[in-house]
Write a structure and sequence with these properties.
By secondary structure, the protein is an alpha/beta fold. It has 22 helices and twelve strands. Helix 10 packs antiparallel against helix 11. The two termini are about 20 Å apart.
Length: about 575
């Protein structure tokens, strides 16, 4: 039941929703949808905003129906010891009829509130993308006040989510008003709160131990087979291991949900209303069984094909390694020549990513922040100082090192000397000169093309100006949080790793665009990006990235590849992200 419903959502319903979203953006001439332009859409394109909001409402309804279907299905199987799709669908339809506009708003708030819990026990593809981007989380955690506030908010949400945890299950079996159901959930959890917490934690630990135990059993078996058998036999067992582990993850997720649901219902004092008696004819049941059998065979065939492609792929040989701000493992001050020289000498990245800003005298300086407060302890912006003042009078400090700010001319010359290609992010502000982008491309374009360097920006206007006036200069558009796959004139996309999916990557490749992932510093995240098929990875940790790329350089060593793949599937168990590679 869980396998069929989740697959239906992932392979049919969500693709339709994605198509509708892209159609909305296309007809309203909106190249992308992210938090950076949502406010502009609300102000200047209200009809498009209404269409997007309606689609979001549909997704909330989908989440409600998904949860309803699973709960009713579990109860139906418990009562009748069989799966009757038609009756469960009828019961779920009746649940939908209970929702008023006011109730829908309550349920929408409910799903947002229980996100800290739902990602562990209820895994709906509809809400799998609702997460805090890593770059934003890192920014918050680097600030004591913001991190304290985030922890406080999370604890409050966690508390309220636990107290309201029974709202939706009670909704399906009670005819009371939503206000009465909320009070019942509050009273039931008040009596059993600590018991609910420790039982929930114990359940998560037990399921995790089972999954990890299976991973290591299969991993060590594959190591043994890799060491004694022919490559083809090892490949076959690796594919079978991946399929088995995929199925077991689905089983563990189902076990997690059913056990948690049974635990919730055990706290209620009354008997739940039994589902309607089965009325499906034998003919209809046989047809459904045939459909499910065909579906299961398709699932197996697709799993075999995907596993084979992954196990035999050497795509990681071509993974572009990119040093974030020219630094690796804190070996210097970001965006400075000394750090560039050390990074290039030791790790030999394919590209060094840097940031360029305009100065008061319309020159270009290599600097990430608009304000100098963080690195130089000077509360001035780059547009407040000339290039000479920035170079000669300003010392910046980071990672225990000190350095001078570099002009882009000096930095580019240093890169050319070592034949190092650059990925240059053009930073923009409201104080930039009118022709800033055109001036930059005119002044440095020929040298960048000769050095095979690339340009990128958060500002889509930069990309469109480059495409219009300097079409032969490679440009990438940076998306911090993608709510829908973009359709832009850029040559590539730099996507924040949190929102990256295999579908994003494959769609970009179909459009002939390159995909860079940023900023990927953890080994498990690097492995995931490789599995997703990205073309390049921007990191502060080149040493580990180079090692990981090397692991994929050979077609053998299937145990290592299985281990990486399985760890990524385990993240599905942890976070509820349904789009596995």
């Amino acid at each position: 039941m869980v396998l069929a419903v989740n697959s239906l959502i992932i392979n049919l319903i969500l693709p339709i929703c994605n198509y509708v979203m892209r159609f909305i953006l296309y007809v309203n001439d909106i190249p992308f949808l992210s938090y950076t332009n949502i406010l502009l859409i609300l102000i200047y394109q209200p009809f498009a905003a209404i269409e997007i909001i309606l689609l979001v409402i549909v997704l909330f309804f989908g989440t409600f129906l998904h949860f309803s279907f699973l709960i009713q299905g579990v109860m139906y199987i418990k009562v009748y010891h069989r799966l009757d799709w038609i009756n469960i669908i009828k019961i779920t339809g009746k649940d939908l009829g209970k929702i008023s506009v006011f109730n829908f708003l309550i349920y929408a708030f409910y799903f947002v509130l229980i996100l800290p819990i739902s990602g562990v026990f209820f895994k709906s593809p509809f809400i799998s993308k609702v997460k805090l981007p890593n770059f934003l989380l890192d920014f918050i955690l680097s600030n004591t006040i913001l991190s304290t506030l985030l922890v406080a908010i999370y604890i409050i949400c966690l508390y309220f989510s636990l107290r309201m945890l029974m709202v939706l299950p009670l909704t399906f079996f009670e005819k009371e008003k939503i206000s009465v159901i909320i009070k019942k959930s509050w009273l039931l959890t008040q009596k059993n709160l600590w018991q609910l917490i420790w039982r929930s934690v114990l359940l998560v630990i037990l399921i995790a131990l089972l999954a990890v135990g299976l991973l290591y059993i299969l991993y060590f078996i594959q190591i043994y087979i890799d060491s004694i058998h022919h490559n083809r036999i090892a490949l076959l067992t690796a594919i079978l291991s991946v399929l088995l582990f995929q199925f077991m993850i689905i089983f563990f997720n189902t076990l997690n949900f059913v056990t948690f649901f049974n635990m919730l219902t055990s706290y209620t004092k009354h008997e739940f209303k039994q589902p309607a008696m089965p009325s499906t004819t034998l003919k209809k049941r046989s047809l459904l069984q045939i459909i499910f059998t065909i579906f299961f065979l398709v699932f197996i065939i697709k799993g075999v094909y995907d596993s084979y492609v992954y196990m035999t792929s050497t795509a990681a040989n071509n993974i572009v390694t990119i040093s974030h701000r020219g630094v690796t493992n804190r070996n210097g001050v970001q965006n400075t020549i000394p750090a560039l020289e050390k990074t290039v000498k030791k790790e030999k990245p394919d590209y060094v990513e840097i940031d360029v800003r305009e100065t008061k005298d319309n020159q270009f300086v290599v600097l990430h922040d608009e304000n100098l407060a963080l690195l130089a302890r000077i509360y001035k912006a780059t547009h407040d100082l000339t290039l000479d003042e920035l170079k000669q009078q300003t010392t910046i400090r980071e990672n225990g090192y000190t350095a001078k700010i570099n002009s882009f001319d000096d930095y580019l010359a240093a890169a050319e000397k070592t034949h190092q290609r650059l990925l240059i992010e053009i930073k923009t502000t409201k104080r930039d000169s009118k022709d800033m982008v055109n001036n930059f491309a005119t002044k440095y374009g020929s040298r960048l093309r000769k050095n095979k360097s690339l340009v990128q920006s958060f500002d889509y206007k930069v990309v469109t100006q480059l495409r219009k006036n300097h079409d032969d200069l490679f440009s990438s558009y940076i998306l911090p949080f993608s709510l829908s796959f973009p359709n832009t004139v850029s040559d590539a996309y730099s996507l924040e790793e949190t929102t990256l999916t295999k579908k994003n990557v494959s769609t970009a490749h179909k459009q002939g665009k390159i995909v860079f992932a940023w900023t990927v510093n953890e080994v498990e995240d690097m492995n995931r990006m490789v599995i997703l098929g990205v073309d390049g990875i921007i990191t502060d940790n080149l040493e580990d990235l180079n090692k990981i790329a090397g692991k994929y350089a050979t077609k053998e060593g299937y145990a290592e590849r299985f281990f990486i793949y399985a760890n990524d599937l385990l993240s599905v168990l942890d976070t509820g992200n349904s789009e596995t590679p």
